[in-house]
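User: Second chain of the day. Same drill as before.
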Amino acid sequence: MIFWKVKSGILLFGALMAVMPLAHSQLQLNDKHIYVALRMVGHQMMLSAGDSTSRVLPITTNGETYELSFETPIAIEPDTLVALVDSVVKQAQIASSYLVEILQCDSKEVLYSYEVGGPGKMDIVPCRGRDLPVDCYLLSFTILEVPLVLPSYNSAQTNVASTQPAGTMPLVVSAGLLIGITFLWFYFRKKQEDSEAPANVLALGSIGFDTVNMQLLHNGEKMELTAKECDLLLLLYYSANETLERDVILNRVWGDEGDYVGRTLDVFISKLRKKLEADTNLKIVNVRGVGYKLILNG
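Assistant: Same format as last time:
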């Protein structure tokens, strides 16, 4: 198995050297992965602000910084924002260290910011609990450190390189580095494909929740969700094992639409329970007189 992976890595290296656009193709794929994760952040921010209908606008990039904007003004709760971004970043594995900034649309003034330092580093999260009022905001997300960091050269390698003219590297070292990078890319890419769901598929026990296509996935079968069912299940997922009050659920999922009656929420909960029956350990329980709770273990 190891020999097959090394052989495949060398073959892939040859293909990369012969067809350079493949590297650009992979970069685009990584960007799309990040876009999906950040759009999930935007979607949850809108839901938290009680807006389930307005759009998250196309994401723009500048180097390692991604900018997220919204169709309509929203209010922002720093505590909710920090928890929400952290959950999505960990689920999608797009960064181990990152900077989040909230800017006012017109002035571009930074109204709130925080930094997650990654393993072994301190997080800097100021002013939690000070909510930002309804206004036009931009969310700037800058990747400071990616999850996979390539090893640095040792002193012996540095000495060998130093015998060459400035700005050059021996051919053998260069080829070895490229082969190593190619092998690592192939190995971790295959491992990810074998063991991880796409960033837009959340794990609900043994059931996959495809938030983009609004589907539940189980043993190769797909169950379609309505937009409201999807919004309701997302809200329950991000508050898993915590009780959500009925009024909070109605406000965040239905907002000011005014098209629901007292038992509408109960009907939607009943529909979701039926669609989640495939996993007997997955439950949406009624907390009498308060609201509902999604029981999600692991």
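The CA atoms of residues 2 and 8 lie 10 Å apart.

User: Great, on to the next one.
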